[in-house]
C-alpha cells in the first residue's frame, strides 16, 4: 500500500471510531446510567456496526487490522472485562448492567471468532493462535 | 452516575481529541518533510477528503452556532438559513472545476496566486489577504468566543472563557502551525465527521426533550396561534424602504424576502473565499467536485441543516432551556458523555474553520504579499518559519480581540462574508467571463468593498469617528451589505470593461482561456440546455430565497385564518424550505453533471512554461516599495488623526 493510501485508510478508521465508535460507547453508558437494556443494546449494535465499517475499510484498502489496532482492541477488551468482573465481584451491578456487559462481551467474542473464521477459514483461524515452536523462531533451524 | 462522571468526561474527551490531533499533526509534519507540502499538501489531498473538509468548513460550525441561534431567535422569518446547504454548494459548482484546471496549468495553489497570474494585480492579492484576515480574526474569533463560553459553562465555571479560548488558541496553533495544509486536510476530515455527528446528536436530544417531532410541531402550532408570535412564521413582505438598522429600521420587521435573498448572496461568498479555494487547489484531482458539491454539501449537509439544525433551533424557540448552551448544560448532568462528545464535535468544527482561515491568512500575508513584493530572496524554509510566526501572531490577535474588544470582532465578522462575495467578480473573470478586464476587476472589487463597508457597522463607526455621519444605517432597505457591495462592483465592472481593451490579456491569462476553449469546452447537450439552466436557476432563487418566499408563508396552510391547518403537519415555511432544498439538490445535480460545470474530466494538464525572462535584482525595488508603504502608512495615520481631531470624536 502506498503512503497516501495508508494514510487515507487510517483516516477513515479514525473517523469511524471517533463517530460511530464513540456513539456506541455513549449509548452503552447511557443504558447503564438509565438502567435501560434497550439503550445498552443500541450501544452494542453500534460497536458491531463500527467493526463492520472497519472491516469494509480494510477490504477496500486490501489489508487487515494492523498490529497496533489488534493490540489496542485486545487490550481494551481485557481492561473492560477486568472492570466488569471487578464490578460483579463488588456486587454493584444491577441486572441490566450485568446483562448489558454479558451481551457486549458475548457479541465481541462471537464477532471476533466469526471474523477470524471468515477471513482465514476455521482451520486457519485456529492456526492464528496455535504457533508451532518451529514458527516461533525458538527452535534452531 | 455520580457527579465524578459529570466532571471527568469533558476533560477526558478534550485530551483524547488533542492527542488524536497531535498524532495527525505529526503524520502531516513527517510527510511534509518529504515533499515540502506545508503550503498545499503537495496537491495530494484525495477528492473525497476535500469534499468532506469543504463541506465541514463551509457549513458545520457556524451553522450550529449561528443559524441554530438565529432560528431560536426569529423562527422561520429567515428561511434562507434552511436552504444553506444548496446556497453554499452553488458557488463551488460554478468555480471549482475551472479554477482547479487553471491552477493546475499555471502550477499555483491559492486564490491570491491565481489573481496575480491572471490579472497581475497586487491589489487583488491584498484584497485576498484582507478577506482571509477578516475570516481569521473576525469570523472565526466570533465562533471561538461562543465556543469558549460553552466550554466555561460545561466546566461549571472552573474554566473562564479567557482561559478556555487561550487553551483553544494553543490547540489551534499546534494543529495549523506545525502540520500546515496537510494537517488541515487530514485532521479536517475527522473534524468534519465529528461535527456532523455532534449536530445529529444535538438534534436528537433537542427532539427527544421536546417530546418528539409531532409534539414539536404541535407546540409550534400553539405558538403560531398567538398574534404576537406571527412574525416567527412568516417572511415580512418583499422589501421595506427603511434607512437601515440604526436609522429607523426595526430589527423585528427587517426580515423581508429581499433580506433573505441578499443574505443568501452573502452566504454564497464563502465558497468564493480564499479559504475554500485553498482546499480545492490542494486536491489532487477535480473528479470529486461534482459529487462533493451535489451530494455532500447540498444533499447531506443540506439535509442536516433543514432537519437537525432546524429542529435544534426550533426547540430553543419553544423553550429557552433547550437552546444550545442550556441544553448542553443540562446534558452535562444527565448524559455527560454525550455532552462532552457534542462539545468536542462543535469545537472540531470551529477549529476546522479557524485553523483554515488562520493558515490562509498567514500564507497570503507572507508568501503572496511579503515575499514577492518585499523580500524575493526569502527561502522556502524561512517562508514557512515566517508563516508560522504570522499564524501565531494572528492567533494571539484573534484571542486578545475576542476577549477584550468583542464589538470590534463582531463588526469585522460582519464584513467577512460580504467581502468574500465581492471576489465573485474576479473569480467569474478568471473562470467564465473572459471579457472582464484587469482594471475592471480591480476597480470593481474596490467599489464593492466600499459598498460593503459603508453599509456595515464598521464603516458607520469609522466615519462617525472621523466626524461624518452616514444618512443610512446597517443594511438600508433591508438589503444585506453583500448586495450593496455587489451592485457597486458590477456597475463599475460593466462600465470599465466596456471602455478598456478586452483583448489586453497577459500571457498566463491567454493560456487559461485557451485551456477552457479546448479541454473544458461544453458538450452539445450542455449547450442545448443552457437557456433551461438559466431559467431553472432564476426560478429557484426567486422561489427558494427571493421574493417568492412570501408564497411560502401560506402555501402549505389550509382552513380559515382563525383556525389554520398545517397541511403537512409542519409550519408552511418549513415545508416550503424543504421543497426548495429538494429542488435545490436537483438543481445542483443538473448544473454539476448535465451542464458539465463540475463534472469529472480526466486529462493530463501539462504545466505552463513561461517564456524565459531576465530576473533583475529586485532588492532596490523592494526597498522602495517598503519605503512607499511606510510613508503611505504614516501619512494615512496622520491624516486620520487630523480629521478625527478636527471633526470627529
| Fraction of helical residues of chain A | over 70%
- What's the gyration radius of chain A in Å? 18 Å
What is the number of E strands of chain B? 2
- Terminal residue distance of chain A: 32 Å
Shape assignment of chain B = globular
Number of helices of chain B: 24
CATH superfamily of the largest domain in chain B: Sodium/glucose cotransporter
What's the overall average pLDDT of chain A, rounded?
A: 87
Largest sheet of chain A: none
> What class, by secondary structure content of chain A?
mainly alpha
Task: Describe what you observe in this structure.
The complex is a heterodimer of chains A (about 140) and B (about 650). Chain A has about 140 residues and is mainly alpha-helical. Chain A has 5 helices and no strands. Chain A has one domain (about 5-125). The longest helix of chain A has about 35 residues, at about 95-130. In chain B, a hairpin with a 6-residue loop joins β1 and β2. Chain B starts with a helix and ends with a helix. By secondary structure, chain B is mainly α. In chain B, α3 (about 85-105) runs antiparallel to α10. Chain B has a two-stranded antiparallel sheet with strand order 1-2. The longest helix of chain B is centred in the N-terminal third of the chain and has 50 residues, at about 160-210. Chain B has helices at about 5-35, 45-75, 85-105, 110-120, 120-155, 160-210, 215-225, 255-265, 275-280, 290-320, 325-335, 335-375, 380-405, 405-420, 425-430, 440-455, 455-465, 480-500, 505-520, 525-530, 530-545, 550, 570-595, 620-645, and strands at about 555-560, 565. Chain B has 2 domains: about 1-25 and about 35-605, Up-down Bundle (Sodium/glucose cotransporter); about 615-649. The interface between A and B is medium-sized, with 18 and 21 residues. Chain B: Belongs to the sodium:solute symporter (SSF) (TC 2.A.21) family. Chain B: GO terms for molecular function: symporter activity. Chain B: It is a multi-pass membrane protein. Chain B: This is Sodium:solute symporter family protein.
Amino acid at each position: 500500500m502506498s503512503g497516501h493510501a495508508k494514510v487515507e485508510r487510517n483516516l477513515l478508521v479514525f473517523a469511524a471510531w471517533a463517530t460511530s465508535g464513540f456513539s456506541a460507547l455513549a449509548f452503552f453508558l447511557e443504558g447503564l446510567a438509565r438502567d435501560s437494556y434497550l439503550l445498552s443494546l443500541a450501544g452494542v449494535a453500534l460497536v458491531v456496526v463500527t467493526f463492520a465499517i472497519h472491516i469494509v475499510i480494510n477490504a477496500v484498502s486490501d489489508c487487515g487490522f494492523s498490529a497496533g489496532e489488534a493490540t489496542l482492541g485486545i487490550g481494551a477488551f481485557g481492561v473492560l472485562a477486568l472492570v466488569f468482573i471487578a464490578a460483579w465481584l463488588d456486587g454493584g451491578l444491577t441486572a441490566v448492567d450485568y446483562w448489558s456487559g454479558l451481551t457486549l462481551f458475548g457479541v465481541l467474542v462471537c464477532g471476533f471468532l466469526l471474523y477470524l473464521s471468515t477471513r482465514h477459514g476455521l482451520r486457519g483461524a485456529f492456526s492464528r493462535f496455535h504457533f508451532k515452536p518451529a514458527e516461533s523462531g525458538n527452535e534452531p533451524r | 452516575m455520580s457527579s465524578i462522571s459529570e466532571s471527568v468526561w469533558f476533560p477526558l474527551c478534550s485530551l483524547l481529541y488533542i492527542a488524536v490531533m497531535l498524532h495527525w499533526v505529526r503524520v502531516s509534519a513527517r510527510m511534509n518533510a518529504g515533499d515540502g507540502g506545508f503550503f498545499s499538501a503537495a496537491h495530494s489531498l484525495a477528492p473525497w477528503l476535500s469534499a468532506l473538509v469543504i463541506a465541514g468548513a463551509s457549513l458545520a460550525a457556524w451553522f450550529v452556532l449561528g443559524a441554530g441561534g438565529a432560528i431560536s431567535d426569529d423562527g422561520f422569518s429567515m428561511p434562507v438559513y434552511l436552504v444553506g446547504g444548496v446556497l453554499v454548494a452553488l458557488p463551488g459548482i460554478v468555480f471549482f472545476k475551472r479554477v482547479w484546471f487553471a491552477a493546475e496549468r499555471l502550477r499555483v495553489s491559492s486564490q491570491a496566486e491565481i489573481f496575480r497570474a491572471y490579472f497581475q494585480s497586487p491589489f487583488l492579492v491584498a484584497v485576498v489577504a484582507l478577506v482571509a484576515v477578516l475570516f481569521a480574526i473576525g469570523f472565526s474569533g466570533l465562533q471561538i468566543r461562543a465556543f469558549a463560553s460553552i466550554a466555561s459553562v460545561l466546566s461549571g465555571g472552573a474554566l473562564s472563557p479567557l482561559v478556555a479560548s487561550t487553551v483553544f488558541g494553543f490547540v489551534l496553533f499546534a494543529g495549523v502551525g506545525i502540520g500546515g495544509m496537510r494537517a488541515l486536510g487530514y485532521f479536517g476530515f475527522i473534524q468534519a465527521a465529528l461535527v456532523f455527528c455532534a449536530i445529529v446528536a444535538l438534534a436528537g436530544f433537542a427532539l427527544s426533550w421536546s417530546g418528539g417531532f409531532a409534539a414539536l410541531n404541535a407546540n409550534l402550532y400553539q405558538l403560531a396561534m398567538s398574534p404576537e408570535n406571527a412574525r416567527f412564521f412568516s417572511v415580512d413582505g418583499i422589501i421595506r424602504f427603511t434607512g437601515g438598522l440604526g436609522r429607523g429600521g426595526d430589527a423585528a420587521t427587517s426580515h423581508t424576502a429581499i433580506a433573505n435573498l441578499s443574505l443568501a448572496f452573502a452566504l454564497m461568498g464563502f465558497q468564493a473565499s480564499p479559504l475554500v479555494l485553498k482546499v480545492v487547489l490542494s486536491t489532487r484531482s477535480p473528479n470529486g467536485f461534482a459529487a462533493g458539491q451535489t451530494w455532500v454539501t447540498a444533499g447531506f449537509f443540506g439535509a442536516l441543516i433543514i432537519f437537525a439544525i432546524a429542529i435544534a433551533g426550533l426547540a430553543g424557540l419553544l423553550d429557552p432551556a433547550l437552546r444550545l448552551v442550556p441544553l448542553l448544560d443540562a446534558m452535562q448532568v444527565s448524559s455527560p458523555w454525550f455532552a462532552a462528545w457534542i462539545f468536542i464535535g462543535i469545537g472540531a468544527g470551529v477549529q476546522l474553520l479557524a485553523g483554515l482561515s488562520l493558515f490562509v491568512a498567514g500564507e497570503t500575508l507572507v508568501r503572496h504579499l511579503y515575499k514577492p513584493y518585499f523580500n524575493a530572496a526569502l527561502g522556502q524554509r524561512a517562508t514557512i518559519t515566517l508563516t508560522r510566526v504570522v499564524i501565531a501572531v494572528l492567533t494571539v490577535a484573534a484571542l486578545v480581540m475576542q476577549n477584550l474588544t468583542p464589538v470590534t470582532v463582531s463588526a469585522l465578522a460582519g464584513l467577512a462574508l460580504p467581502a468574500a462575495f465581492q471576489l465573485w467578480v474576479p473569480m467569474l473573470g478568471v473562470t467564465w467571463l473572459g471579457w472582464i478586464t484587469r482594471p475592471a476587476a480591480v476597480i470593481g472589487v474596490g467599489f464593492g468593498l466600499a459598498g460593503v463597508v459603508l453599509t456595515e457597522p464598521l464603516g458607520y463607526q469609522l466615519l462617525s469617528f472621523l466626524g461624518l455621519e452616514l444618512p443610512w444605517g446597517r443594511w438600508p432597505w433591508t438589503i444585506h451589505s453583500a448586495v450593496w457591495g455587489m451592485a457597486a462592483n458590477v456597475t463599475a465592472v460593466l462600465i470599465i470593461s466596456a471602455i478598456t481593451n478586452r483583448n489586453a490579456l497577459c500571457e498566463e491569462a491567454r493560456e487559461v482561456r485557451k485551456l477552457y476553449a479546448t479541454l473544458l469546452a461544453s458538450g452539445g447537450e450542455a449547450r442545448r440546455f443552457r437557456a433551461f439552466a438559466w431559467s431553472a436557476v432564476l426560478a429557484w432563487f426567486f422561489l427558494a430565497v427571493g421574493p417568492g418566499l412570501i408564497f411560502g408563508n401560506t402555501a402549505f396552510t389550509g382552513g380559515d385564518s382563525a383556525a389554520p391547518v398545517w397541511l403537512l403537519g409542519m409550519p408552511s415555511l418549513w415545508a416550503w424550505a424543504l421543497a426548495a432544498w429538494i429542488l435545490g439538490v436537483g438543481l445542483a445535480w443538473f448544473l454539476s453533471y448535465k451542464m458539465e460545470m463540475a463534472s469529472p474530466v480526466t486529462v493530463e494538464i501539462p504545466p505552463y512554461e513561461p517564456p524565459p525572462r531576465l530576473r533583475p535584482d529586485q532588492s532596490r525595488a523592494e526597498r522602495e516599495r517598503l519605503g512607499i508603504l511606510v510613508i503611505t502608512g504614516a501619512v494615512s495615520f496622520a491624516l486620520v488623526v487630523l480629521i478625527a481631531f478636527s471633526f470627529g470624536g
